[in-house]
């Protein structure tokens, strides 16, 4: 027989003994060694939190006043004298929010994303009120243009959603549309069954949930690539910053927000008809130095991209911007837009343009062939197997540099190359692309020779090699950089800021222009057809409606069925006044109302089973108790408590009536709670909490005083009674002796108004306020206070990781509690409009019961 383990202190894990590790018994019944007790968390004077049950217990002035656990010492001594045997260590962790989920909860709401996913991406969500979209474009243009915006509210590290970057008010930003959040499933259900969908269509996704769901809907590979770009934009100083994601409240469009520059390389240099150097006879040392500085910085920017594992695939003059000191930066917003335009052209959407590509856009041969292949257009034979990579950027980089040198003439030559290519492909399938390109390349080199003086042979040769059709034979970017540097200075030491090992440190794993951010837009436009006629025509049988929308869209399902019609809403009508309370037990739903009636509903078919009538005043609270004999207890604002038998068939009269002593100056009972140990608690308008025995005599056990106004809410959890009051505080009381333990919110919450409702679960306390705020406490420490409703919150309900609140603004807010311990966060998922003030909430076995001020009880359940 295996012997039990010797008892040990739950804090220091040392075995108990009678000399140094003496076990002392706390008032909750658990033992801890006297050495560790003074070191335990002491959130309030003369109280500690038991390390075993986390209950708040009173601490005497001296540790010696706590009794020794003699039985534990005897057991420890006897076991430690036994020869050693196998020892097991049983480590228990406090349950996390996510682990406390009943399987039935998933009938109503299902997981959208993992906690790890939320923690990783939440800092990239910009607050909705932080950005003003200044320029609204047509649908066709908004996908292929950089929208203009402005920061209207500063964002700094104090923001809980955005603590990594800082945005200052009045900053100019660029916005690239990446999608639109649309619930197409709801529309389908509405067409099938309008009445059923009307209930579900009331669900409104929260701002943050729209963006998080959009990110979660992308593939893991796409998120990895996107994460690489986001981090690189802040890691490297020569890259324009990407601030995060923003969603327009007008049309639910999701945007990437980028830094916007007023000075671009294309606009700054576009007026130079003969290039930066001018004619050969005008190429002075000053002009060479100017070109050298700009050219070196362009090379350095491209090398920075490669070091971070990124390639662009094709470059344009618009991809580079100039900061306030005229240093070159890469503009990610323009890169996204340029990539989309290139993909749109190849996909056959250039009917309104005279040229295949816009000016100053340089697409390398292998990139062009790859895009044509993706469209099903065969241009070359199978021997052309060059892949898009770092060498592709070298070709485009060389074109940008040659454009700076040669000016408009080179831009015209490039356009002629594109025209020649596409005109050749239109007439025949599988044209000799290599020969075609070789002829164009000779023209490029001739233009370069004509625009460079004889003393620049080295630069001319390097740029000529960059135009080779084989990416493997093109020089590396740092070789181009060295060649340009020689125009300015001949270094004594050949120092190079990027070692060869550094430039190949990370193989390019992401080509921006081939990503879904750029390539998928061209494939999802209305009426898509190929550029090359006779090769791949538009599908004549394609359903026109399938292409009606030209925007990227995603499909969300924050609440399981609420947004897609799988959850139906049942209305229970029998009361004649405002609903004040809901309780479930014994297979029945109990509802109280200001009409002085307690109604009983069947949970099978939701029919009205019985009505209790005895109260002469408005019923304000109801609770269900199942301690031997099932009971339903109601209280009214006249101070009368009625105890009803809750077993079918129901009696018409209460089994017992308690009349609370009531001062005429105060209202009656506002709230009820039970301890589960034969005790009923009432919170009243006289600022007192009273404990009543549920035994035979139903006598008053004690009165707890401390609040300065009406006691509006009570909750019992982990042997602690929580009481909320109109004075804005929450007080904690011991269930064992009803002594006060702590006061929360007395000096930390500011002007949040009265406490109207409470929800407690193990160490977590959620408090609803008159101001519309919900405060989250963990181990009596305030974690967060957030505005959830536009008006008072009358009811709050927690089940597992889901939190529901309802109140004056006639909506139910749904939040997901994510994280463990002090890292718990409430993620807003969305809201449901109810059409009336929400006065009571109850979540039970996948069903949400809602009591309203318009006398109706709504039940949301799986349809």
UniProtKB/TrEMBL annotation:
RING-type domain boundaries: 9-54
Domain of life of the native organism: Eukaryota
Presence of the UniProt keyword Zinc in the record: yes
Tagged with keyword Zinc-finger: yes
Gene Ontology molecular function, alphabetical: ATP binding; protein kinase activity; zinc ion binding
Coiled-coil ranges from the UniProt annotation: none
Alphabetic keyword roster: Metal-binding, WD repeat, Zinc, Zinc-finger
Domain Protein kinase: 137-493
InterPro entries associated with the record: Kinase-like_dom_sf, Prot_kinase_dom, WD40/YVTN_repeat-like_dom_sf, WD40_repeat_dom_sf, WD40_rpt, WDR86-like, Znf-RING_euk, Znf_RING
Pfam families: WD40, zf-RING_UBOX
Ranges of the WD repeats in the UniProt entry: 572-611, 704-743
Protein name: OLC1v1016391C5
Organism: Oldenlandia corymbosa var. corymbosa
Taxonomic lineage from the root: Eukaryota, Viridiplantae, Streptophyta, Embryophyta, Tracheophyta
């Amino acid at each position: 027989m295996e012997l039990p383990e010797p008892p040990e202190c739950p804090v220091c894990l040392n075995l108990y003994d009678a000399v140094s590790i003496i076990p002392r018994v706390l008032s909750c019944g658990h033992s801890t060694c006297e050495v560790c007790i003074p070191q335990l968390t002491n959130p309030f004077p003369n109280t500690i939190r038991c390390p075993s049950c986390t209950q708040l217990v009173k601490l005497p002035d001296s540790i010696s006043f706590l009794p020794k656990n003699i039985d534990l010492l005897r057991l420890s001594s006897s076991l430690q004298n036994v020869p050693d045997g196998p020892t097991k260590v049983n480590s228990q962790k406090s349950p996390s929010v996510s682990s406390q989920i009943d399987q039935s909860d998933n009938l109503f709401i299902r997981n959208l994303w993992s906690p790890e996913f939320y923690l990783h991406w939440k800092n990239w969500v910009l607050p909705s009120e932080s950005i003003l979209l200044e320029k609204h474009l047509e649908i066709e243009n908004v996908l292929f243009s950089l929208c203009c915006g402005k920061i209207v509210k500063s964002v700094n590290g104090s923001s809980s959603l955005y603590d990594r970057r800082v945005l200052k008010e009045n900053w100019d930003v660029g916005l690239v549309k990446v999608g639109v959040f649309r619930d197409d499933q709801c529309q389908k259900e509405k067409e099938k069954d309008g009445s059923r969908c009307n209930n579900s269509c009331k669900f409104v996704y929260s701002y943050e949930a729209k963006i998080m769901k959009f990110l979660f809907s992308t593939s893991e590979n796409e998120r990895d690539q996107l994460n690489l770009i986001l981090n690189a934009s802040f890691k490297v100083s020569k890259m324009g910053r990407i601030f995060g994601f923003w969603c327009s409240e007008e049309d639910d469009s999701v945007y990437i927000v980028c830094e916007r520059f007023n000075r671009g390389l294309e606009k700054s240099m576009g007026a130079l008809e003969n290039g930066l150097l001018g004619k050969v006879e005008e190429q002075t040392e000053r002009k060479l130095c100017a070109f050298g500085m700009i050219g070196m910085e362009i090379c350095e920017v491209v090398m920075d991209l490669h070091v971070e594992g990124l390639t662009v695939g094709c470059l344009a003059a618009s991809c580079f911007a100039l900061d306030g000191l005229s240093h070159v930066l890469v503009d990610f917003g323009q890169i996204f837009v340029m990539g989309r335009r290139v993909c749109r052209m190849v996909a056959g959407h250039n009917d309104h343009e005279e040229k295949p590509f816009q000016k100053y856009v340089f697409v390398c041969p292998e990139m062009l062939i790859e895009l044509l292949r993706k469209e099903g257009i065969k241009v070359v034979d199978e021997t052309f197997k060059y892949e898009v990579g770092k060498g592709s950027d070298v070709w485009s980089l060389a074109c940008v540099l040659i454009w700076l040198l040669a000016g408009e003439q080179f831009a015209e030559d490039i356009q002629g190359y594109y025209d020649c290519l596409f005109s050749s492909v239109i007439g025949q399938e599988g044209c000799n692309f290599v020969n075609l390109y070789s002829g164009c390349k000779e023209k490029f080199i001739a233009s370069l020779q004509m625009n460079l003086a004889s003393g620049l042979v080295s630069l001319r040769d390097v740029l000529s090699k960059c135009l080779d059709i084989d990416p493997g034979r093109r020089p590396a970017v740092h070789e181009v950089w060295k060649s340009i540097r020689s125009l300015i200075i001949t270094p004594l030491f050949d120092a190079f800021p990027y070692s060869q090992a550094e430039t190949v440190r990370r193989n390019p794993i992401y080509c921006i222009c081939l990503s879904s951010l750029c390539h998928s837009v061209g494939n999802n436009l209305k009426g898509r057809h190929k550029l090359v006629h006779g090769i791949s025509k538009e599908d004549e049988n394609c359903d026109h409606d399938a292409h009606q929308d030209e925007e990227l869209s995603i499909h969300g399902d924050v609440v399981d069925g609420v947004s897609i019609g799988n959850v139906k809403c049942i209305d229970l009508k029998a009361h004649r006044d405002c609903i004040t309370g809901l309780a479930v037990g014994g297979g029945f739903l109990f509802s109280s109302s200001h009409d002085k009636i307690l109604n009983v509903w069947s949970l099978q078919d939701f029919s009205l089973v019985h009505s209790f009538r005895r109260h002469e005043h408005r019923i304000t609270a109801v609770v269900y108790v199942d301690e031997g004999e099932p009971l339903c207890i109601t209280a009214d604002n006249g101070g009368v408590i009625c105890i009803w038998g809750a077993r079918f068939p129901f009696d018409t009269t209460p089994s017992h009536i308690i009349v609370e002593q009531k001062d005429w100056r105060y209202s009656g009972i506002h709230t009820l709670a039970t301890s589960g140990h034969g005790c009923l608690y009432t919170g009243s308008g006289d600022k007192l909490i009273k404990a009543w025995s549920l035994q035979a005599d139903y006598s008053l056990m004690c009165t707890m005083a401390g609040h300065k106004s009406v006691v509006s809410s009570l909750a019992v959890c982990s042997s602690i009674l929580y009481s909320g009051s109109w004075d804005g505080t929450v007080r904690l009381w011991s269930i064992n002796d009803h002594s006060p333990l702590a006061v929360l919110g007395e000096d930390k919450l500011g002007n949040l108004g009265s406490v109207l409702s409470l929800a407690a679960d193990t160490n977590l306390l959620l408090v609803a306020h008159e101001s519309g705020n919900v405060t989250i406490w963990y181990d009596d420490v305030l974690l967060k206070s957030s505005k959830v409703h536009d008006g008072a919150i009358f009811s709050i309900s927690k089940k597992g990781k889901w939190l529901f609140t309802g109140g004056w603004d006639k909506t139910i807010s749904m939040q997901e509690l994510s994280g463990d311990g002090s890292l718990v966060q409430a993620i807003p998922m969305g809201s449901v409009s109810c059409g009336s003030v929400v006065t009571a909430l109850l979540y039970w076995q996948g069903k949400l019961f809602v009591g309203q001020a318009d006398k109706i009880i709504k039940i949301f359940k799986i349809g």
